[in-house]
Amino acid sequence: MKRPFLFLEEIGEQDLDEAGGKGVGLARLAALGIAVPRAFVTPASFFEEIRSRSPDDPEPERLARQVPAPVREALEASLDALGAAPEGFAVRSSAVQEDSATASFAGIHESFLRVARGDVLPALFRCWASAFTERALLYRRDRALSTDPSAIRMAVIVQIMLRPSVSGILFTRAAGSPGGDLVVEAVAGSGERLAQGRDRPERLRLPRGSGSPAGDRTASGLLSSGALEEIRRAALAAESAWRVPLDIEWALEGERLHLLQARPVVGDSAAAATRRSATPLAEDTLWTRANMRELLPDLPSELFLSLLERVDWRECYRRLGTEMPEGTLVRAIEGRPYFNLSLIGAMMAKFGLSYDRFARWIGHGEEVAEAAEPAARPFRALLLHPAAHLRAFLRQRRMPAEARRFFDRVHARTRQLSAEDPAAATDARILEACRELEASSRDFIYFLMAGFNRVTSKMLALELLLPRRASGARLVNAVVPAGEKNISVRQGLDLLRLAQLSRREGRTLQYLLEGKDDFRGYEKELEGTFFLPAFQDYLRRYGHRGIQETDPAMPLYRDAPGFLLKTIGAAGEDPRSPDPETLARRQEETAARAWRDLRRDLSPAERLVPVRSLLLRAAVRDLKEAIALRERIRFEGMRVAAELRRFLREAGRRLRARDLLGDSTDLFLLRLEEIEAVLSGRADGTQFPDIIRRRREERSRREAIPMPNLLRESEIGNLAARQPLHPAGRGTFQGLPVGPGRIEGRVVVLEGPHQVDRVRRGDILVAPALDPSWIPLFTLASGLVVEMGGTLSHGSIIAREYGLPTVVNLPGITRALKSGDRILLDGSTGLVRRLET
Predict the structure, then answer these.
(1) What are the angstrom distances between the C-alpha of 837 and each of 531, 727, 733, 762, 834?
(2) Are 77 and 97 in contact (CB under 8 A)?
(3) What is the Cα–Cα distance from 174 to 182, expressed in whole angstroms?
(4) Stretch 115-139: mean pLDDT, rounded?
């Protein structure tokens, strides 16, 4: 074995492959004469050699126990050489690419602080093993770094823990800082909470030359002028050696300054200088899951994420008639898919649509507006980019006909697939079906994007026609629900008709309310009723839908109809359940009032010559048609995927029969390429149990993170320490109104539609997000309050067509309100107020 431990003075630039980026960085600082905490590095080859002795044993603690006695003695001698450590030791990662010009790995690998001497050895291996977690591998994939375990080299640093009086972070050239000033953030005591984004620091700008600092607050009480001058000199010396802007961690122990880390401010750290700043910068990339969260579980399956990663988004945009700028459009952040809102904004600007307007439509507010570009001018954009507008216009003209051909293809392929028996298929046919799922998903995504683009273009046209004083959102909320219903709304209205039928058959309703054996034998129990054939017909029409249906890990209605039967029973039990005819009349009256109100905003000349009114009615009609087409794309596009899921389930059964899975549903913890490798015979799958165990652990860790709907690039490294968000206000909250009407009632807070058991007729549902799978619950609710959503989001469109008073875009409201609270909900103004009980 090579020397197992290297002290900083023994490390040079040539040792990067052994000491890693952070280790070499500390050695460079020490070589400049800058104080760093005493430390040594455990080189990458040390771990590789220990692992080579037990290649089938992945457990860090067991590997630590296999370290030979001479190496243990060398570790003890190295710890002795560091000297007294009353605060213990810091055990920190140092992968080869870490703290480099292309990747920081901030918050990706594990670090352990205040480690007792006896725990250093197992902490070394736990830190090393964090290089192979799903979180680290996803980070590597996103940055085009190798994920081959044999190519990942991780060293680990052991440092003396300091007892700092003041700690902080410094950016030698922060974006937006006048004159390229240094930006210093400081907190009293240790800096872990600052690095995690949990402490608000004192923030000041430090001139690169001589001069007094400026900042949010004075530095008195934390940093003396002498300390500031020492920090400035050390930072500039380090920047001069690196020759790039740096992100530096520092600490003052007594009067002595120590630098704890220095890394380039580039790539995913480019906006680090503002990650805790109150002033967001436009170049700090915005990531959104507003529209994604309506379509997917909060934390989708690994199989779904692998399908999403294989989508060629650039080709999708080419099919849409435009070019996507350079950049990543979709990425998984802590297991959740996010869209690059900044990139979308760049594309929107070409068509005269500022992304703050687009962001409001999908459910964001002022937090986007403050970072947005100046308001775009559609007519000016037309003059600047006439060819792009012409291509987009022609695509929009052809889109309905293209969608109809897509529906025809879907129906034909669905008939073919439904005639196949997956149990009789060969492994090669199962593999072919998996690949077809990927291809059909790409086609489906393209049409979803095309449908959404059509809706947004029609919404923009409507807003441009409105009088200055009129609100486009208010008009849309009032008039779009009236008239013919889209397919998603008809799905819910047909469920209401089933509830009415169950009410007329006492035997049926009694069975639905009792829910015997979780409805597993419902066909036998309901034999001879009028209800049974009507429900079977409902499943034939709508059974390919389901809760969070886009993820193949989630069951569809036809696979698990108990949810529908339970909802029908709850609606059938209450004779006050609304009937579709009454609902339609009420919506027609609301629309008529909205048109009368709009007329008052017109000038006398416009009332006399109603050109604007006629154009607005045509624009509303176009918008309704675009919304209906978008909903039908979602409805029809699920058909092929529903049939192909039968082949996925068969793959899970086969791998379970070969003892590669503990349960057939473990298949959804695998990536598509891993499943393909086994079905094609290129791999034996013996590693699956270990992969599944690690991914289940990673999923459990991710579930505990309260992920925001809008995220800045600079915040990603601190997500694991993020605290749940609570909305402003204690009893009164202001959101976005999307469903007109005013109601008082009891609140029931739900995580998802599967909690239908908790809902009583007339409750106001409070939910994190809505999608078409909530439709059955709309038949029970009197109103809706939703954490996220915008004027054009799926949930908002469907909710207002049910005539439900609805307020959306209230982040944290599921924690602010409790089941049993009584509230006033005003879906016309966006007001939600808790009432005294």
Answers:
(1) 41, 21, 18, 17, 9
(2) no
(3) 7
(4) 85
